Amino acid sequence: MRYSGFKVLMEGLTGNKGWKPVWREPDPKPDYDIIIVGGGGHGLATAYYLAKEFGEKRVAVLEKGWIGSGNIGRNTTIIRSNYLLKGNQPFYEKSLKMWEDLEQDFNYNAMVSQRGILNLIHNDPQRDAFVRRGNGMHLSGADAVLLDEKGIREMCPFLDFKNARFPIRGGLWQPRGGTVRHDAVAWGYARGADERGVDIIQNCEVTGFDIQDGVCTGVQTSRGAIKAKKVAVCVAGSSSRVMAQAGMRLPIESCVLQAFVTEGLKPVLPGVITFGAGHFYVSQSDKGGLVFGGDIDAYNTYAQRGNLPVVEDVCEGGMAVMPMIGRARLLRMWGGIMDMSMDGSPFIDKTHIDGLYFNGGWCYGGFKATPASGYCYAHLLSTDRPHETATAFRLDRFMTGHAIDEKGQGAQPNLH
Ligand SMILES: Cc1cc2nc3c(=O)[nH]c(=O)nc-3n(C[C@H](O)[C@H](O)[C@H](O)COP(=O)(O)OP(=O)(O)OC[C@H]3O[C@@H](n4cnc5c(N)ncnc54)[C@H](O)[C@@H]3O)c2cc1C
């Protein structure tokens, strides 16, 4: 079924009786060409591009819960491509370009809103670093604008310019950054993949891998064994646990990241704003709520809930940069499990086991990567070659000395 304004109008006039379920509920078949483990944003996008762009016909996505129950439905919805290093920047710029066409591509309203993202600058060395970053962005064709204090005052008069512990001196503004309705992304990809014959199997947990003589031939699941020529793992915060079933130890630790939403307010924020002297970022949803977050809870856990010290820390960050946020009432908060890699950058790679592939290590920035990650993973699975924008995301990069340390903070996931 093709969605359009005309279709909505016609259904409205005829009692909304013509809508159909958006994806099927198939039982697992005994074997597939490609099995994707994990029905989050990246897994569903991979399935969609495998079917649409690479002509793969026998693909299944196995999801232990329901699709959208993981981080794809828990994130703060920010998209951007303001990266510096050449291992990362072209990949994230590809992703941002794909966001720009996504809704037409999969015929689903994902509320892509390029309202811009602003990184605040508080001192001279930080300005130097952001100038360098902006130049790096220009080199890959991305947009970046350096604003001075006057420019920030005009754009965000509500920020604390009078009495701030860390005075605001300017900012790096990416106009094409913004927000996207996160769960609609999962639904849009699921619908597009299902339409092209992908089996999306919910309530199907992968509990083991069938590996013989160094070759992965299928998976064990809570709904029985399923054979596959290729198995593609894509389970975000569960990466270490799932890959341990294949005997692999990953350079990834899992931590919780929390998100917060206030009551609905009149439009006040021009776009996404990030505090440069602490860890706090905020945007405003289309319903009016301020959506914000900050640091991860810096201990390792697989629990999807966080603790109070980080709540206090995030709220302090908000108060330090925009004291008016103290008047807003908090409505909801939740946590998601982050797959924190040792250098803050992801993996899209084959493993040493033939037929077993891995995508993960997205830390708290994997939502914006969803389209490019899905496309590049599909490219790798279908052609057995990495996509040109994802050649650096290798599992052996710590052995070969090719870490992609975007923040320059070393192997300390809680600082990335
Ligand atoms: C609070 C918060 C805020 C964030 N904000 C942003 C942001 O603003 N911008 C941004 O770019 N990124 C953000 N992120 C990060 C982003 O959400 C993640 O990096 C990204 O969603 C991870 O990829 P995914 O969507 O595939 O993960 P998920 O949706 O978590 O998908 C993984 C799936 O695997 C399934 N699974 C696990 N184990 C198994 C198994 N054994 N068998 C079968 N299935 C299994 C899980 O149930 C889950 O559905 C944020 C994350 C959180 C938690």
Describe this structure in words.
The protein has 416 residues and is an alpha/beta fold. Helix content is 27%, strand content 27%. It is built from 10 helices and 18 strands. It has helices at residues 5-13, 41-52, 89-106, 124-139, 149-155, 182-195, 239-244, 308-321, 370-383, 397-400, and strands at residues 31-37, 59-62, 78-79, 117-121, 145-148, 170-174, 178-179, 199-201, 206-212, 215-221, 224-233, 252-264, 272-275, 280-284, 289-300, 330-341, 347-350, 356-360. Strands 1, 2, 8, 9, 10, 11, 17 and 18 form an 8-stranded mixed beta sheet that branches. Strand 1, helix 2 and strand 2 (59-62) form a beta-alpha-beta unit. Helix 2 (41-52) runs parallel beside helix 6 (182-195), helix 2 packs across helix 9 (370-383) and helix 3 (89-106) packs across helix 9 (370-383). The protein is globular. It starts with a helix and ends in a 16-residue tail after the last helix. The mean pLDDT is 96.
What does the secondary structure layout of this molecule look like, with pairings?
Elements: H1 5-13, E1 31-37, H2 41-52, E2 59-62, E3 78-79, H3 89-106, E4 117-121, H4 124-139, E5 145-148, H5 149-155, E6 170-174, E7 178-179, H6 182-195, E8 199-201, E9 206-212, E10 215-221, E11 224-233, H7 239-244, E12 252-264, E13 272-275, E14 280-284, E15 289-300, H8 308-321, E16 330-341, E17 347-350, E18 356-360, H9 370-383, H10 397-400
Parallel strand pairs: 1-2, 1-11, 2-8, 4-13, 11-18
Antiparallel strand pairs: 3-7, 4-6, 5-6, 9-10, 10-11, 12-15, 12-16, 13-14, 14-15, 17-18
Helix pairs in contact: 2-6, 2-9, 3-9
This protein binds flavin-adenine dinucleotide.
